[in-house]
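User: Predict structure, ligand 2-phosphoglycolic acid.
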Amino acid sequence: MGKPFVAGNWKMNTDSHSAVELAESIAGGSVSLAGEKVTVAVCPPFVYLRDVANSLHLSYVAVGAQDIYFESKGAFTGEISASMLKDVGCTYVLCGHSERRHVIGETEELVNKKVVAAISGGLLPILCVGELLSEREASQTEEVVTRHLKSGLAGLSDEKVLAVTVAYEPVWAIGTGRTATPQQAQQVHAFIRKLLNEMYDDQAAAEIRILYGGSVKPNNTADLMREKDIDGLLVGGASLNADDFLAIIQAAV
Ligand code: PGA
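Assistant: Predicted complex:
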């Protein structure tokens, strides 16, 4: 496995003061690890991206956005383009997070356009995939993950797909305190790796990182990271507390 990757998704939380404070604590506490031993990124709300990026510019903690629009500019009220995200210091962008799919109503086609636009605009997309509880109970996990992965990556060449990180986030584990067991997560991660192998060349299938997300906490990180196909973590709630997020980074190394 390459360097682990830990990303924090702050969702619709923090304010202008606490966002910078949180970013600075994370940068300060991960000085000896971030960059060298682990890739770390934080994804604040759009309106705090610039301040957070400025406060992190001397650190190895990267900045990601939580969403993007696929058009480059024009009459798209409320939307944000890849070049705007680059302009304020973003490296990464989440695409197709389950809250965007299931709360906001994003379609698979839209998620794909976002992934493609992110790469064309020089950003590194983190494509989120994962099943609802009802889908898991109906034994449809592999079917849903296949659909999310194939539609999300549609049209990408072996070379372009290297920009992508995949995050497996079972929706029933997000914000519920009910983490997938390491075995449950590993099973789906191995399945995703197999799909990538079928879809792309050996290099892409081996190098694309697959993160797990869903109620990751300091006390379950090490067990999750021990699994062969878990290359990192996408952390929601616990990334809002600097001590918890730092403990997760530490345990992921
Ligand atoms: P959680 O969120 O860690 O709060 O479950 C994960 C996510 O939505 O990325």
